[in-house]
Amino acid sequence: MKINILMFALFFSMQVFAQSNLLQTSFKFDFGDNKNENGFIHVMPSDSYNAQKRYGFDSNSKASLKKYSSKNKQHDNYITSAKPIYFSVKLPEGNYNAKIVLGDKKGESVTTIKAENRRLLSEKTITAKGKFETVECTIHVRDSIIRTTGRSVKLKPREISYLHWDDKLTFEFNNILPKVCSMEITPNTDAITVFLAGNSTVVDQAEEPWASWGQMIPAFFQPKKICIANYAESGETLKAFKGELRLEKIWSMAKPGDYLFIEFTHNDQKPGSNYLEPFTTYKQTLKEWITEARKKNMIPVLVTSMHRRFFDSTNHITNTLGDYPEAMRQTAKEENVTLIDLNAMSKILYEAWGPVESVKAFVQYPANTFPGQTKELKDNTHFNAYGAYELAKCIVKGIKESNLPIKEYLKKDLTAIDPAHPDNVNEWSLPMSSFLSSKKPDGN
Do 212 and 348 belong together in one domain? Predict the structure, then answer.
């Protein structure tokens, strides 16, 4: 009986693998009605996504087309909209490079590029009149099937509709004046993949105004070299993450030289079946993951969890995470693993903001700030885009100050990062995506 089950699992995984390999993995899109130029598919605003065609505008996007004539066909036309534009391509799981041409022959453009669940790829590209810029990004695409066993990740009901678990890659073109001329997508089998395992403070949050550092970090790395694969999910603990086969999915996708960043605490400390005691079962579980990662020639990295926003009477942060950050520090030392002490940096960051300004980094908004939001949002755990971005900068600082080889692949033009001097919230902006929710993520 066991042999039959194993044979069936092997057969199933081989069939899934074979089917996925039949899918096209490279595309060249020219947004406009030009004749095909060097293999480009010309796409019109009326081309809505469907699975048979395998590409098209998605999520009720209303793009408009502007047409010109020039010697360079890729600069002839562009799509634009006053609202975010979503464009999807059906692709098998893996890492992909995208080359996206932005600009306007007769005007300026301002474009932000995100992918999947609001994953930030390019913060803001500005082109002057008649100028064009090619933005390159590297994106991780996945589904829930574990091809080494034929099993599937145990998704929560809300995750079934998440863009990062479907069978396509979805781009979001956004900002005050996005102008997209063309796009090329090709597989990237050489990039180092950085897998993120964590909870709601790490996950690619699907809906505004919630955000996490994991969905901001891709924008800090050079394209082609590094690909961020964020497998975090709201409400997760170390124990649940493994039990739901999320860790098994990572093992099935990883290759030698890849990284595993681990950040858990907020939910592990809560009573219940997933509780782990900091200096025993919590440390033991971390060590088991570290051992398995090393067996696969991966590089494990431990990240202490950031504080919650709780100030004492002297305007200093109160620790609500107990002994868990210290337990992780001890584990890193005992296992000779790189530690990024986000817990320590978040204390500096929050106290630099202070009790008043720090509110602007968290999901704290009066009622009716967003459509359909009838109640006040007052969350001291989860961040908005600004707060998530500042925490991502702390992660970048930790990488830069480490001995991790991937620090060489951070973008070269990054300015100095100091949690004691965060970006001025009044001078920082990131355009909001179309998806909104007033429901708090799991894990408060």
Answer: yes
- The string of pLDDT tens digits covering residues 51-81 is 999 999 999 999 999 987 666 666 779 999 9
**Helix 385-400 / helix 342-357 crossing angle, nearest 10 deg:** 150
Residue 292's domain comprises 190-427
Q: Which CATH number belongs to the domain containing residue 272 in this structure?
A: 3.40.50.1110
| Terminal-residue alpha carbon distance, the chain | 44
CB atoms within 10 A of CB 85: 25
Asked whether residue 66 is assigned to any structural domain, the reply reads yes
Kindly give, in sequence order, each residue whose CB lies less than 8 Å from that of residue 6, ignoring residues fewer than 6 positions away: none
Contacts of 392 (CB under 8 A, 6+ apart): 213, 214, 216, 217, 220
Closest-CA residue to 218 (of 344, 95, 51): 95
The number of beta carbons lying within 10 Å of the beta carbon of residue 24 is 12
Burial class (CB in 10 A: 0-12, 13-18, 19+), 107: middle
Domain with residue 170: its CATH number is: 2.60.120.430
